[in-house]
Amino acid sequence: MIKNYLINNSHKHASKWLVLLIDVVITIFNFFLAYIIRFGITLNFDTSNLIYQIPVVAALSALSFLLIGSYKGVVRHTGMRDAYNLFLAVTVLIALTGFLMVSSRLSLMPELLNIPVSIICIHYMLNIITLTTSRLIFKYCYYYVKSKIGESSRILIYGAGDSGLITLAAITNDSNRSSLSVVGFIDDNSQKIGKTINGIKVYSSKAVNNNFLTKNNIKEIIVSIPHISKKRLSEISDDLLKLPVKVKIIPAVNDWIDGKLKVSQIKEIEIEDLLDRAPINMDNQNIKRELDDKVIMITGAAGSIGSEIVRQASYYNYKNLILVDQAESPLYDLQQELLSKGITNFTPIVADIRDHQRVETIFEKYRPNMVFHAAAYKHVPLMEANPCEAIKINVLGTRKLADLSSQFGVDKFVFVSTDKAVNPTNVMGATKRVAEMYIKCLHKTSKTKFITTRFGNVLGSNGSVIPLFKKQIAKGGPLTVTHKDVTRFFMTIPEASQLVIEAGTMGNGGEIFIFDMGESVKIFDLAKKMIRLSDLRYPEDIDIKITGLRPGEKLYEELLADTENTLPTYHKKIMISRFDDNDCANVKDKIDDLCIMNLLNQDHQIVGKLKEIVPEYISNNSTFESIDKINKDTVQTKQEILA
C-alpha cells in the first residue's frame, strides 16, 4: 500500500499553506521551549504573559514567512537556498519581536508583550536549528523510504569529485526522475576510497564486480568526470561494459542547460562518445579573416561533409553561401534548417556538376570567391560495379568545376579527397587520386589557389559502418564485418569539416593537406563494443558475421602514398604532403583521353586507363585484378626481351 502510494504520488508536493502552518507551529513550540530553557521546567515566572505573547508571536512568524516566502520551496528538494530563506525569515521574526519588546518598554505597547531579551535570543537559535532540521529530516526520510519501498533504480556515480556531487544533486533534486537512488561513488583516488560524501560511500573501481552489483542490486553506473579524454573514457567503459549494468555519461559542461546539469541530459554512452575527437572551436580568427565578406560555393552541400561545412561557414561574416547539390530532398532539408536558425543569406541550387553549361551559369551569376568541392561518389563497392559513373563525377565533374574556378578567377578551390586515394585498390579511390593530380597540375598555370584535403572515415556519415551496425542491432543482428582484421581511421563530421575550412584558409595552393586521424580502430572490436553498449552480449544475444572483403576494399587504410612525406603546419592536426611533381602535360592528356573513353561505357578499358594514369593503383578482391595480371605479364615479357 505504501509502495503504491509512493509511486502514484511521487510527483505531488505538499501544499505551501500546510508548510506555512507547520513552520508557525514549530515557531510557537520553540517560543514555549525558550521559556523552559531560560526558567526551567518548573516555569518559575508569571505564565499569564504567555497567553498574550504566543498569539502575537504566531502572527509575527506567519508575517515573516509570508514576507520572505520560505514556505514556497518543495520540502523534499530542500537546498542551500531554502535554508538561507529560512534564516532570513527567522531574522525578520526576531527583529519584529525585538521591536515589540522595545515598544512595550517605552509604554507604546502593553507591558504583557515585554519579552525578555534572553528569550528572544534563545528563540532565534531554536528556530534556525529546528526549522532547517525539520526540512532535512523530511527530505532524507522521503528518499530513504522511497529507495527501500518504492521501485527505484539503484545507481553508482563514477567520479567522486565536484562533477560527481553535481550529478548527485541533479538526481536528488529532479522530481521527474524519482526512481533513481544513488548507492555509492566510484573513484580511483586512494584518499577518497572508503570515505563518505554526503553520507554516500566511495568505492574503488576494483571493488565493483559482478558480486558487488548483485549484492547491492545496482542497475546503472553514471560516468561523471569532466573533460575526460577519449582514451580514458574508452578504458573505463571497457571495464564497465563487461558488467551487467547500463553505462551512462553526463554531457560536457558547455552543454549543460543554463549552466546547470539536468537529469534528462544524462544519456547512455554511445560509440560516438568513445571515438569522439577534439572539440570544435568556432572562434577561429584565421577562418574569420578568410571568409569575411566572401561569396562561398559549396558543392555536395547536402551531403555529410558538405552540409557541415555549410553550418560552420554560416557562423562567420560571409557575403553569400551558394549551396549546390543534385539531391533535391536533402538540399531542401538543409535549406529549412538554415531558415529555422534565422540564416537567410544563402542560395540553394539544384544542379549536377557534370553539366558544364549549368555550372558555368552559376559561376557567371554569383562569382564565388571560394569553392569547397565536396560533391563525389564515395561508396567503394558501388563504384567498383559502376566505374563509368565514378569517373563522370569524381574526375570529369571535378575537372569541369576546377576549370571554371580558374576561368572565373576564384581565389581558392578546396578539394575534399579521401585516404582511399592513397595507393588505391578500388575505382573510387583511383578516381579521387586522378582528381588530386589534375588540380595539382592546374594550379601551376592558374591564378586560383588549388588545395586538396585528405582524411579517412567520418563518424555518422551516410553509408558509414556505425549507422549500419545500429540498424543491424535494432533488427536483432547479426552484425556484418568484412574481415576480422580490417581497421579504419575515424573522425567526427564537425572536426573534419572545420579542418577542411581551416586548411583552405592556410593553403597557398598546390598542397595536399593530411589530417591527423589519431589511431586506427579495429572494426571487429568496434562491433563487439556496440553490442555491449546496446546491453546485449556477444555472441549469446547477437552474433558477428564475417562476410569477406568487398570488391576493392583494403584491410588497412593509408593517409600517405609510398612516395610522400609530410611537413608540419601551425595546426597540430593538419600536415602538408610532399610528393614528386608529375609530368602535368602528360597527365592532362591522359585524363582527357580517360574522359573521352568513358563515353564508350567499357568498364575494363576505362579502368585500364585509370591504372595507366595512377601506376600504384592495384585492384584488390575485384574483377579488375585481371588487368593487373595482364600488365604484369606485359612488363615481364618486355624485361625478358630486353634481357
Automatic annotation (TrEMBL):
<dbReference type="Pfam" id="PF13727">
    <property type="entry name" value="CoA_binding_3"/>
</dbReference>
<keyword id="KW-0812">Transmembrane</keyword>
<feature type="transmembrane region" description="Helical">
    <location>
        <begin position="17"/>
        <end position="38"/>
    </location>
</feature>
<protein>
    <submittedName>
        <fullName>Polysaccharide biosynthesis protein</fullName>
    </submittedName>
</protein>
<feature type="domain" description="Polysaccharide biosynthesis protein CapD-like">
    <location>
        <begin position="296"/>
        <end position="576"/>
    </location>
</feature>
<feature type="transmembrane region" description="Helical">
    <location>
        <begin position="83"/>
        <end position="103"/>
    </location>
</feature>
<feature type="transmembrane region" description="Helical">
    <location>
        <begin position="115"/>
        <end position="138"/>
    </location>
</feature>
<comment type="similarity">
    <text>Belongs to the polysaccharide synthase family.</text>
</comment>
<feature type="transmembrane region" description="Helical">
    <location>
        <begin position="50"/>
        <end position="71"/>
    </location>
</feature>
<dbReference type="InterPro" id="IPR029063">
    <property type="entry name" value="SAM-dependent_MTases_sf"/>
</dbReference>
<dbReference type="InterPro" id="IPR003869">
    <property type="entry name" value="Polysac_CapD-like"/>
</dbReference>
<keyword id="KW-1133">Transmembrane helix</keyword>
<dbReference type="InterPro" id="IPR036291">
    <property type="entry name" value="NAD(P)-bd_dom_sf"/>
</dbReference>
<dbReference type="Pfam" id="PF02719">
    <property type="entry name" value="Polysacc_synt_2"/>
</dbReference>
<dbReference type="InterPro" id="IPR051203">
    <property type="entry name" value="Polysaccharide_Synthase-Rel"/>
</dbReference>
<keyword id="KW-0472">Membrane</keyword>
